Amino acid sequence: MKKWLLIIPFLFILGGIPFANRVYPLIFGIPFVLAYIASGIILSSIILFLLYKWEQKGEDNVS
Questions:
Q1: 6, β-bridge pairs
Q2: Contact of 36 with 29, CB cutoff 8 Å
Q3: What is d(CA 9, CA 15) in angstroms, rounded to the nearest whole number?
Q4: Which among 21, 4, 2 has a CA at the least distance from the CA of 13?
Q5: CB 31 within 8 A of CB 22
Q6: Could you tell me which residues are beta bridge partners of residue 30?
C-alpha cells in the first residue's frame, strides 16, 4: 500500500509542468520551472528514502 507513494513524484513533475511553465519569478536566480523540477527531484528522493526505510523495517519483522 505504501508503494502508491511513488505516484506523487510522477504527478508532481509531469502533471505540474504545464502549470509551472514560467520563467518569472526567479528562485535563487533560476527560472521557476527549473526550480519546480529540482524540487520534484528532491521530493522523489525523500519518498524513495522513506519507502526504503519502511521496507527495511518490514524485513526485520519477518526474520
A1: none
A2: no
A3: 9
A4: 21
A5: yes
A6: 27
β-sheet bridge partners, residue 1: none
Q: Rounded to whole angstroms, how far apart are CA atoms 57 and 60?
A: 5
Cα 2 from Cα 8, distance rounded (Å): 11
pLDDT tens-digit readout, 15-60: 887 888 777 888 888 888 888 888 999 999 999 999 898 888 776 5
* Block residue for cell numbers 527560472: 31
pTM for the model: 0.72
Task: Please list, in sequence order, all residues whose beta carbon lies within 8 angstroms of the beta carbon of residue 14, skipping any fewer than 6 positions away.
Answer: none
Bridge partner list, 27: 30
Domain ranges, ordered by start, for the chain: 9-60
